[in-house]
């Protein structure tokens, strides 16, 4: 029959769109600070800016109440060494974390997280978020402090290492005196509705169901200071213009550049489906510097094609659930769902390699299980009813399995993570660690443009997004107080409006899913695990062919599909940025997750620098910026935050 639309046309019963269609109509607002993205970082940025006296507007594709990767929940508040029971100093921990995460970590973001994470958490509690076992439900659980009733993860040691694998799940496996107390278990499912409520209470203009599409530069000149932003309503198609003195990008990073599968059930990822690189692309077109865009690593989150990575034990939310094989033989337990090491993470790659060898030689028999039955009852209770029930990707699993009869005190749960040990190399995270570069105010090289959360390069987790969002909000508000509103170019707005609405001018051709998969195939074929100049050139040629032949056929018959179509255009632009960065990095390096067949060796001098790139007059400019460019983290933080008063005074 052809497309879905053709079917309904033939049947004569097209569905009625439930909202008024306003293609071509405009709404205009004026504010001090506009926040692009209403996830964790975006909400905190909006709240912080509003509390600093700024008038704030916020774009969000979905409903702020549950939108973004952290919307459904979170079970760990990581890197919070400023709490009163921490056994490490925030400034020392920031350096240790930075060093353990490697040469290309984000020292500015890490320092902000370590110095302000506890203040952010206490502010969350003041707003009504639950961060303590105040009803004494988990008395006796390892890591629970009876006085503060904070629930610390018992896994992490003062030196940053984790409890030994052979002791996993056993009472006293990491003695209290050796724990660093820098990771707090939280009731994160309570957080996002509270953040939305607080935004409304503070008068933030929440522009929901609206995709931000462009940063507006003064007089329409790329690289000039920020004067506003545009967006499109995903229900009505109305074009939104916001005049602003400052903008904060908090839209998360890339997604669906290498993979997309709409036919299998579910999207097997902890990230939001709305994460399509829009913020990175908007910053890029505005003239902001990006870095780490050349990196790509095999993804463990492949949409629809794998089991979800949080399965059965050995992952962050499973805390100290021991792993056993089919013969009930204990396994060395990998922690977290990540392959790389770090102060917060175990050397999982080494442990998985050890287990794989054991499977090959008959030492371990598949399938593997998380052995809840072997745990102390109070520990099983904490893992199942707190950690897994608060984490966004596992809450539905807890509900479904509990209703199906799973008993956390006597049953085991199959672990699919270790059955699918080797990720498929063609399913990758584009720009892995890539994002926007900032200074110590979290401002980019474009005046008035700030970034927070997953939009920054080498970002952290939920609490990183919260702390950096909160920080960026007050910095943007302070900046907005110092400047006057700049001149908006109507010509720039008209060009953007024409670009955005182009798919609505057609009633046939190519829909967004086909375009998305087409870009995926190009990246999988030519920019996967092994790369060389010829393959990267072929990728760019194919992308250019898609832009020339397919994009002019892109059509959208309703505002929601228009949003998805525009996301595909972001994915195309993101892919081009990544491919050009890959070409420029002529080396192979595990640190950067680059394997070039034509440049098999690492260039020691090149590895001393970030590769930064930005647009000038729509031409790519490359720059090498030394690693550790931020200087002394403690001194620089304090120099830029003399007016900040928080719980931690140093």
Which structural traits does this protein have?
650 residues, alpha/beta, four-stranded mixed beta sheet, 15 helices
Characterize the structure shown.
- This protein has a 5-stranded parallel β-sheet with strand order 7-3-2-11-19, with helices on both faces.
- Among the domains are: 76-185, no CATH class; 316-334 and 347-415, no CATH class; 502-618, Fumarate reductase/succinate dehydrogenase flavoprotein-like, C-terminal domain (Methane Monooxygenase Hydroxylase, Chain G, domain 1).
- Strand 9 (226-233) and strand 10 form a beta hairpin.
- With 650 residues, it is α/β, with parallel strands linked by helices.
- 32% of the residues lie in helices and 13% in strands.
- It has helices spanning 4-11, 40-51, 90-101, 107-127, 191-201, 278-286, 348-360, 377-390, 395-403, 462-482, 490-501, 512-526, 533-550, 559-584, 633-639; strands at 26-30, 33-36, 56-59, 76-77, 151-152, 184-185, 205-207, 210-217, 226-233, 239-243, 246-249, 290-291, 296-298, 323-324, 368-371, 412-415, 428-430, 435-436, 449-451, 609-616, 619-626.
């Amino acid at each position: 029959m052809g497309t879905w639309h053709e079917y309904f046309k033939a049947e004569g019963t097209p569905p009625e769109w439930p909202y008024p269609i306003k293609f071509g109509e405009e709404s205009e607002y004026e504010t001090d600070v506009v926040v692009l993205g209403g996830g964790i970082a975006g909400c905190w940025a909006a709240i912080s800016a509003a509390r600093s006296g700024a008038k704030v507007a916020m774009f969000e594709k979905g409903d702020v109440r549950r939108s973004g990767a952290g919307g459904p929940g979170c079970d760990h508040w990581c890197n919070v060494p400023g709490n009163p029971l921490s056994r490490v100093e925030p400034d020392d921990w920031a350096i240790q974390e930075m060093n353990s995460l490697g040469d290309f970590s984000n020292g500015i973001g890490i320092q902000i997280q370590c110095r302000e994470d506890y203040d952010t958490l206490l502010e969350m509690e003041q707003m009504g978020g639950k961060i303590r076992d105040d009803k004494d439900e988990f008395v006796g659980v390892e890591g629970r402090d009876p006085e503060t009733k904070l629930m610390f993860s018992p896994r992490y040691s003062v030196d940053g290492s984790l409890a030994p694998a052979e002791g996993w799940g056993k009472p006293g496996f990491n003695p209290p005196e050796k724990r660093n107390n820098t990771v707090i278990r939280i009731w994160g499912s309570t957080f996002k509705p509270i953040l939305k409520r607080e935004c409304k209470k503070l008068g933030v203009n929440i522009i929901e169901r609206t995709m931000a599409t462009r940063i507006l530069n003064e007089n329409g000149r790329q690289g000039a200071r920020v004067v506003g932003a545009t967006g499109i309503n995903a229900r009505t198609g109305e074009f939104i213009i916001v005049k602003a003195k400052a903008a904060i990008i908090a839209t998360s990073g890339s997604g669906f550049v290498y993979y997309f599968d709409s036919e299998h059930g579910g999207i097997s990822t902890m990230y939001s489906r709305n994460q399509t690189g829009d913020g990175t692309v908007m910053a890029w077109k505005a003239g902001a510097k990006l870095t780490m865009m050349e990196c790509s690593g095999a993804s463990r989150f492949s949409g629809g094609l794998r089991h979800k990575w949080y399965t059965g034990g050995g992952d962050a939310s499973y805390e100290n659930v021991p792993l056993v094989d089919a013969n009930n033989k204990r396994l060395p337990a990998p922690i977290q769902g990540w392959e790389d090491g770090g102060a917060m993470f175990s050397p999982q790659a080494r442990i998985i390699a050890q287990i794989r060898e054991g499977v090959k030689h008959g030492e371990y028999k598949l399938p593997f299980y998380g052995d809840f039955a072997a745990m102390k009852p109070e520990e099983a209770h904490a893992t199942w009813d707190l950690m897994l029930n608060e984490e966004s990707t596992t809450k539905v699993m807890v509900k479904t399995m509990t209703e199906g009869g799973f008993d956390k005190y006597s049953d085991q749960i199959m672990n699919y993570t270790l059955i699918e040990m080797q990720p498929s190399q063609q399913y990758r995270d584009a720009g892995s660690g890539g994002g926007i570069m900032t200074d110590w105010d979290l401002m980019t090289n474009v005046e008035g443009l700030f970034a927070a959360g997953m939009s920054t390069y080498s970002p952290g987790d939920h609490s990183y997004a919260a702390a950096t969002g909160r920080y960026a909000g007050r910095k943007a508000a302070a900046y907005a107080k110092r400047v006057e509103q700049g001149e908006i170019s109507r010509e720039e707005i008209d060009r953007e409006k024409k670009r955005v609405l182009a798919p609505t001018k057609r009633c046939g051709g190519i829909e967004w899913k086909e375009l998305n998969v087409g870009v995926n195939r190009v990246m999988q074929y030519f920019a996967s695990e092994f790369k060389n100049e010829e393959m990267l050139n072929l990728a760019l040629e194919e992308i250019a062919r898609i832009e020339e032949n397919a994009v002019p056929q892109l059509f959208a018959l309703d505002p929601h599909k228009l949003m998805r179509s525009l996301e595909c255009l972001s994915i195309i632009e993101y892919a081009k940025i990544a491919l050009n960065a890959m070409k420029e990095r002529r080396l192979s390096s595990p640190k950067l997750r680059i394997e070039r067949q034509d440049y098999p060796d690492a260039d020691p001098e090149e590895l001393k620098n970030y590769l930064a790139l930005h647009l000038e007059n729509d031409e790519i400019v490359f720059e090498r910026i030394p690693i550790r460019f931020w200087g002394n983290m403690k001194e620089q933080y304090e120099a830029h935050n003399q007016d900040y008063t928080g719980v931690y005074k140093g």
